[in-house]
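>> received
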Amino acid sequence: MTDHPPDLAWFERVARDTVAALPAPFLPAAKQVVLQVEDWPHADLLHEMEIGDRLDLTGLYEGIPLTEKSVMDTPFGPDIVWLFREPILAEWRDRGDVELEALIAHVTIHEFAHHFGWSDDDIAVIDPWWE
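>> returned
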């Protein structure tokens, strides 16, 4: 990696490669989710989620988890997985013990797990990342 932080396109490539590497049974449902990479979470989103520091939100799943969807639901748009470049870069710098690609993949998988119906507690049972 150069002295300059990777751009949004690079982050998106890493995230899309991560999604493409999901096990085959998960791919059809994952392909229905829009992947959006931004530098920062929007202020209104942070306010709505009651998050005071914009560095605290590295990713977000926005939608109805598959385990809660019904054919009776009126779709209001596609489900979205958001990744936020600057907070991910800040965490990567603070940690100093992981490759940036691994951190992006981790955040991506975490948010897609919410799409598949996993809660943060469910994810924490099998994901030792935050220990």
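>> The chain has one domain: 8-65+76-123.
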